[in-house]
UniProtKB/TrEMBL annotation:
It comes from the Eukaryota. Accessory subunit of the mitochondrial membrane respiratory chain NADH dehydrogenase (Complex I), that is believed to be not involved in catalysis. Complex I functions in the transfer of electrons from NADH to the respiratory chain. The immediate electron acceptor for the enzyme is believed to be ubiquinone. Residues 11-67 form the Complex 1 LYR protein domain. Mammalian complex I is composed of 45 different subunits. It is found in: Mitochondrion inner membrane. Its main location: mitochondrion. Signal peptide: none annotated. Transmembrane segments: none annotated. InterPro entries: Complex1_LYR_dom, Complex1_LYR_NDUFB9_LYRM3, NDUFB9. This is NADH dehydrogenase [ubiquinone] 1 beta subcomplex subunit 9. GO terms for cellular component: mitochondrial inner membrane.
């Protein structure tokens, strides 16, 4: 196997192992029972770590992925802040441009912040124009 193929294969095996462990975690909520099954799972992986035949390796990984799919939990555990978790994207972070629409009296309550922000915006425009050139009259009008 070439170096990138080895890296891709290693990542695939690690991903499979982690998915299998997470699946066991969903099935066995008692820690000692989960650890028992995790140890057996690790032994199954270690049993084949000396395998060198690419065809056998590919078949082992494919079989493992199929097994994890077939034995997946009907309601897998999700971390609260991860996609699918109960708190995923619960707190919406407003985009920066919202501050441009603040009333001047609101901005006046934070003079240092808005002074620095205006300076940063000017620096960004300067950087943009240096990087990509100045906007022309035809750029700003979309037909």
């Amino acid at each position: 196997m070439s170096a990138p193929a080895v890296v891709a294969h290693t990542k695939r095996v690690c991903t499979l192992y982690k998915k299998a462990l997470r699946n066991l975690e969903a099935w066995y909520d008692r820690r000692y029972i989960y650890r028992y099954h995790a140890t057996i799972l690790r032994a199954r992986f270690d049993q084949h770590k000396a395998e060198r035949d690419p065809a056998v390796i590919a078949q082992l990984v494919a079989d493992g992925e199929r097994e994890v799919f077939e034995k997946q939990h009907f309601q897998p555990k999700k971390f609260p802040m991860s996609p699918g978790g109960v708190a995923f994207e619960r707190e919406v972070i407003p985009p920066d441009w919202v501050l441009d629409y603040w009333h001047p009296l609101e901005k006046a309550q934070y003079p240092e912040y808005f002074a620095r922000r205006e300076k940063r915006k000017e620096e960004y425009v300067t950087w943009w124009e240096k990087q990509y050139g100045k906007a022309t009259a035809t750029d700003s009008h979309h037909h």
